[in-house]
TrEMBL record:
Domain FAD-binding PCMH-type: residue ranges: 1-174
Family matches, as SUPFAM superfamilies: FAD-binding/transporter-associated domain-like
Transmembrane segment boundaries: none
Descriptive protein name: CO/xanthine dehydrogenase FAD-binding subunit
A Pfam family that the UniProt record links to this protein: FAD_binding_5
PROSITE patterns registered for this protein in UniProt: FAD_PCMH
Taxonomic classification: Bacteria, Bacillati, Actinomycetota, Actinomycetes, Mycobacteriales
Protein's organism: Nocardia kruczakiae
């Protein structure tokens, strides 16, 4: 879609963009949402792709993902063999309701900053205990846990002009055992729920993350193996207004799926240690 209110496009911003940010600006990465509908308040686009941020940097500490890393690049990444949860990266890419053309343009950071309940990069980063590095317009930076970043449908922790620079996934999380469940109304449809369970090797802990079914990510942590009633009680304690409603499912349907999948994940991961 043509953005007929845009007067300027900054193709080569400074290495640390943001100092001249003003109302009407928008960061441009893949642009798959920016160019999908009218943006009447925009006056200028600042292209982040020209900055050449490293896309995927595996280290002993974990995986650093540049915010401008495309979904295609993440999908093709081969994680180290000891990262048992590394396959969740590809699984999350497969959850996109998008064609290969979108995969080649859409970015990990863009999907996170859109902050849609069904954003699969949010699912991935929350389940793998990621942190986000944010750059502010005054030159400072801060780190926010992925689980605390999204506050609702299209709502997140970003301040005016703040940009997501990178996503860090710790190696300890990538070495966990994991299982997932995802429900869609159609084979290639948008997620009604995307739920991930993880367990630390050698322990009987359990972490369940619920996304797509709720307006923002819900993380349920258990220090020791919970029984079925305990897990169900934690799910039932989620406030009614947190369950998401859209054409893909009612809040009641999503809560039912969460209960069902939680028990499957609890049973599956109970022997994986």
């Amino acid at each position: 879609m043509d953005l007929n209110t845009v007067e300027d496009v900054i193709r080569r911003p400074s290495a640390r963009p943001g100092s001249d940010w003003h109302a009407g600006d928008a960061w441009l990465a893949g642009g798959t949402w920016l160019f999908s509908e009218p943006q009447p308040t925009l006056r200028r686009l600042v292209d982040l792709t020209a900055l050449g941020w490293p896309t995927l940097v595996p280290t002993d500490e974990g995986l650093e993902i540049g915010a401008t890393c495309t979904i295609r690049e993440l999908h093709e990444f081969t994680p180290p063999e000891d990262w048992s949860a590394g396959s969740l990266l590809r699984t999350s890419c497969d959850a996109f309701l998008a064609s290969f053309k979108v995969w080649n343009a859409a970015t990990v950071g863009g999907n996170i900053c859109m902050s849609l309940p069904a954003g699969p990069m949010i699912t991935m980063s929350v389940a793998l205990e990621a942190t986000y590095r944010l750059w502010a317009t005054d030159g400072t930076e801060r780190t926010v846990a992925a689980a605390n970043f999204v506050g609702g449908d299209h709502l997140n922790a970003l301040g005016p002009g703040e940009v997501l620079r990178s996503i860090h996934i710790p190696a300890a999380a990538l070495r966990k055992s994991y299982a997932h469940r995802r429900f869609t109304l159609t084979k290639l449809g948008r997620s009604t729920i995307f739920m991930v369970g993880t367990r630390t090797p050698g322990t009987d802990d359990l972490t369940l993350s619920i996304t797509a079914a709720t307006a923002y990510p819900i993380v349920l942590r258990f220090d020791s193996a919970p029984d079925a009633d305990t897990v169900r009680d934690r799910i039932d304690a989620i406030p009614a207004d947190v369950w998401f409603a859209d054409p893909n499912g009612t809040p009641e349907h999503r809560r039912h799926l969460a209960r069902h999948y939680a028990e499957e994940l609890r049973a599956e991961l109970g022997g994986a240690r």
